[in-house]
Amino acid sequence: MELKIKRSLLFLCLLLSLLIIGCNAEEKNETNNSKLVVKSSQVDVIDGDTIKVHWKQGDQKKTETVRLLLIDAPELNHPKLGEQPYGREAKKHVEQLIQKATTVTIEKDQTTRDKYNRFLAHVYADDTRIQESLLENGLSRVAYVMQPNVKYLAEYKKAEKEAQEKGVGIWSIKNYVQQDGFHPENIENSEEQGIFVASKNSDVYHPADCDVVKTIKTQNRIYFASEEEAKASGRKRSKVEGCWDK
Question: What is the per-residue pLDDT for 185?
Fold first, then answer.
């Protein structure tokens, strides 16, 4: 009798194990106390430092806005600041990483949410840590460093320093990056070349130091990191006198 009971218990344990494995395989999502793994198709990119993740937990559909920890990318569509230089490049970089990946991993640190209720995390496209990749390419800065969420801070600072030394991306524009954020207004007084500006309401673009740029409302400005990018938006060179022969 005792042997039969043991065999029955063993059978039930095996059956339970198979059911758990089957559920995990069907769900395609892996969750534990510190990570959520989803398919790349379940992720929408909002901008360079914010994504939205969609997944199912049982019969429930869940959506979470995730803010990438310890970095700050230029704004893309701020109601007051408009689009900042390299904002679209940062978003595109994140999109490309995710599109090429099979899975996206959301890894929490210590504190899980910010004051806007966004989930705070380190994010991976397959094995590539997105924060680190953005920093290496000069498409974000190290920012919002607050204890205890500092797990990869040393790696992020190293990547940022390398981008600064190379002068790539946001670091190619003199005085653009400040301790309190990004300052597109400094471009107008910069000797750096290669930044172009258009209005959301116009089909032409101008060099950043063109006087007419000052007349474009900040929230309506669109910045391009190259003239090729400006042309790709469907716009053409402005005919403002003095802007193209400085």
Answer: 78
Distance of CA 223 to the CA centre of its chain: 18
Rounded to 5, what percent of the chain is helix, strand, coil?
35, 30, 35
Question: Known catalytic residues?
Answer: 67, 75, 118
Q: What does the alpha-carbon distance between residue 194 and residue 34 come to, in Å, rounded to a whole number?
A: 43
- pTM > 0.85: yes or no: no
Q: What is the C-alpha to C-alpha distance for residues 146 and 89, in angstroms, rounded to an integer?
A: 26
Q: Does residue 163 carry a pLDDT above 70?
A: yes
Whole-number percent of the chain with pLDDT over 90: 64
The domains found in the chain, sorted by start residue, are 29-172 (2.40.50.90), 193-246 (no CATH)
Where does residue 175 fall: left (phi above 0), alpha (psi -120 to 50 degrees), or beta otherwise?
Answer: left
Say if CB 70 and CB 130 are below 8 A apart.
Answer: no
Mean pLDDT taken over the chain: 86
**Alpha helix (H) ranges present in the chain?**
2-27, 87-100, 130-136, 153-166, 227-232
pLDDT in tens, 191-208: 455 789 999 999 999 998
Measured on CA atoms in the order 159, 162, 166, 171, is the torsion positive or negative? Answer: positive
